[in-house]
Write a structure and sequence with these properties.
By secondary structure, this protein is an alpha/beta fold. It contains nine helices and six strands, in the order βααβαααβαβααββα.
Length: about 240
């Protein structure tokens, strides 16, 4: 059985660059190329939803200034590539692209391009890609709670009606199924504030391969591992 929704934590770009004795941002550039590849592999397998953890909220302040500048430059360039290049994997596989996170913290020029990418891909329905940028899972829950509280104050939602579905529908990924599988590269075995609500019953798979090193065989191995597991959903 294939997962309907895969979450991916793209970890190991900087360590990949370090082992090649390159500058940190060159690892992020390699990671960007790998992201296109992995998206194409997922689409070829018929996986409908994918959420990629690209830049955490903490990264906006914890990354060295030069490295963050280069990450944003690569991100901006990729947005432009999607907008201008009809041969991009996004268009080849009809991938509706959404950006989730506290996007207002990003530079205005990037916010405008993100909106344009969402606009030009909204007609695509075959696959859906969520790009988590300036994202934090706890902060997502805070933002969802604020939306719900505003509706409660207006009488749209009654406190007694609050349940799991109400919270789910107010998350950044509202309307989408929870991720069946979360794959993290880079050797770390934690979720790092990625989809904490949505991942309650996700199958977790960790690999020591750094993100730019991931191969199609590795990706298939993760799918095979998922298929071999018996999901219990807390029972």
């Amino acid at each position: 059985m294939l997962p309907e929704h895969i979450g991916v934590i793209l970890d190991g770009n900087r360590r990949f660059a370090k082992q090649l004795m390159k500058r940190p941002w060159e690892g992020h550039k390699s990671g960007l190329v790998k992201t296109r590849e992995v998206l194409s592999w997922a689409c070829e397998k018929g996986i409908r939803y994918m959420t990629a953890y690209v830049l955490s909220l903490e990264n906006l302040t914890s990354r060295p200034k030069r490295e963050l500048q280069m990450i944003l430059r690569y991100f901006d360039s990729e947005l432009e590539n999607i907008i201008e290049n009809k041969d991009h994997v996004i268009h080849m596989f009809n991938v509706q692209t959404k950006f989730i996170g506290r996007k207002h913290l990003l530079p205005d020029y990037i916010q405008k391009k993100m909106k344009k990418v969402e606009q030009i891909t909204k007609k695509y329905t075959q696959h859906i890609l969520n790009i988590a940028v300036a994202y934090g899972g706890q902060q997502e829950l805070v933002d969802a709670t604020q939306k719900i509280l505003k509706k409660c104050l207006k009488g749209i939602i009654k406190p007694a009606d609050l349940n799991v579905d109400v919270i789910k529908n107010h998350l950044y990924t509202g309307g989408q199924p929870y991720p069946d599988l979360i794959l993290r590269t880079g050797g770390e075995k934690r979720l790092s504030n990625f989809l904490p609500f949505q991942s309650a019953y996700s199958e977790l798979i960790f690999t020591n391969k750094k993100w730019p090193e991931l191969t199609k065989k590795d990706f298939q191995a993760a799918l095979d591992e998922f298929d071999s597991r018996k999901r219990r959903f807390g029972s």
